[in-house]
Structures are given as C-alpha cells and as structure tokens.
Amino acid sequence: MVRVIGITHDHKVDTGIPLEKIADATYTWCWVDFNMPTPEEAEKLDTFFRFHPLAIEDCLYVLQRPKIDYYEGYQFLVLHALDPDTLGAAEVNLFIGDKFLVSFHHQKLEGVDEVWEGLVNGAQKRRAWARGPFAVAYMVIDSLVDRYFPCVYAVEDELDELEKRGGHESVELLMNQVFALRGRLLKLRRTIVPMRDLMYRILNSQHIQGEREPRAYFADIHDHLLKLSEMIETDREMTADLRDSYISLNSNRMNGIMKTLTVITTVFMPLTLIAGIYGMNFINMPELNWQYGYYAVLGLMALLGIWMILVFVKRGWFK
Known about the structure:
Elements: E1 2-8, E2 13-15, E3 27-35, H1 39-42, H2 44-47, H3 53-60, E4 67-71, E5 74-82, E6 89-97, E7 100-105, H4 110-120, H5 126-129, H6 133-146, H7 148-164, H8 171-203, H9 215-278, H10 293-314
Subcellular location: Cell membrane; Membrane
Function: Mediates influx of magnesium ions.
InterPro entries: CorA_cytoplasmic_dom (IPR045861), CorA_TM1_TM2 (IPR045863), Mg/Co-transport_prot_CorA (IPR004488), MgTranspt_CorA/ZnTranspt_ZntB (IPR002523)
C-alpha cells in the first residue's frame, strides 16, 4: 500500500493524494509511505522517484545496519524498529529531501502509523510538521525509539523477579532463565547500539543541520538511546553476576554432597577392611573360635567409626 499526504502552503494536511500530484505547486512538501508494498509498488522507488540504485537495494534486501547516506538532493536513512513479541528488528527506510519524505517498510509498524495518524488527525502541533520533511522524520525516529523502552523495561522486570525468587527454585531452572534473559538482552543490544551510533553520526553531520530542525531534537533521541544502552549493559552485568552466583551455589552444593560422601566412605573403609579380613575362609584363624570374637570385632568397628567421626568434627569437616 502506498499512501500520500501533502502539506499545503497554509499548513493544512491533504490526504488521499495521487502519487503523481506530489510535485504540485499546491504543496510545500509531501510524505509518501510505502506500507508493506507489493513488488510493483516498490518499483516506483526507481521508476517514479529515481532514487539511487544502492539505496533501493538497501530497501529491498533487508536487514541492513542502521546508517545514513547522502545523495544529491536527499538523505537516505536506514532505521530499526523493535517487535515487542520477538524483539526482532524491523527495517524502516527514509528518503528525506527538501520537498518530500518517503518512508519504506515491509511490515506494519505502530511507530510510523502513530506519526501518520497524528498528522492526519491534527494531533501534532502545526509548528512541528510545518518545518518540513526532516521534522517529521525526527518524529518517526522518536516514535520508533520510544517503543524500545517497554521492551527493555520488561526484561528488567523479569530480571528483578528472578533475583527475588533465586533461592526458591532449582539452579538448573534459574540458569536456563538467566541465559534466556541474556539472549533477549543481546537482541536488544543488536538493535539499540547501532541506532545510537546512527544518532551520533546525525548529530555530528554537517549535511542536515539547519534552522528547521535544531540539533537539540536529535540530541534528545541520542540521550534516550544512551540511556537504553546503559540499561542493557547494566542488565547484562547483572545476569553475568547471577550466572556466576548460581554456578558458585551449585558448586558449593556439589562440594557439600561430595564431602558427605567422602566422610561416609572414609568411615566405612577401615570397617570394610576388618569385615573383609574376618570374612576370609582360612582354617587357621584364632579369632574364629573365640567365644566373644564376634562382639569384640563389632565393638572395635564401632569404636573406630566413632573415633574417626570425632576426628573429622574436630578438624571442621562438618562445618
């Protein structure tokens, strides 16, 4: 679907404009949104707009790293939106010129739709979009980045919950949950960090600075991305600490089990030796004919076991 809105000279918004009318003198600039376009509609990037083949290739063959390229008469941006369910990245491409904004995406995105509906319904302040296409591009980027926060907060909530119930579940289950959280954080990092780097490039670019779009707007988005990046790194460190703690806890439990088994084995080793000696079937064994031999051997074994346990207690083996 290709949808078009145009901004008139008196800052009114017209919708349902044919694509061929976007160059009409009635409009100061137009926004063309390729929303899940068909292959025939995608061809208009070349046949109608005459965009650079490399930019068109980046649109058609996803998933590209977030970036900004400069072409004659327009800038080309590759952005990433987040799927809140899978935390996968969805690509959004923007072509920004003096009199047009062209957005291209293969999926329906709430961030883009929100800005579109805001312009159509007049929810956005007139002075915001009256500055031109780059102002609306900023609003699209800001809307996409704002949707990163719930995804990061959801992971943080799960991490806090995992810390609270850490001592009430098996270590194996907790370790699986920690590794699952680290995997989700890695997905978030793969999207947010490149977007942060892109905003840094935009802030330091001389091609897009002007009176219509103050640097402060993109600095605000960059600050949001810095905050998100720091939250992700902090959460990754927390999951690493939890992982190490669970590994240490599991090792301590195994050490305790091995210590118990070692003590039991050590106590019964001499007792087994004595039982083995008197279990032999030799004829000339004087103790076999002794009336109290059975009781004496049992007593010796009991005393030997008690003595060894007392020695282990004194040495602190049971602490």
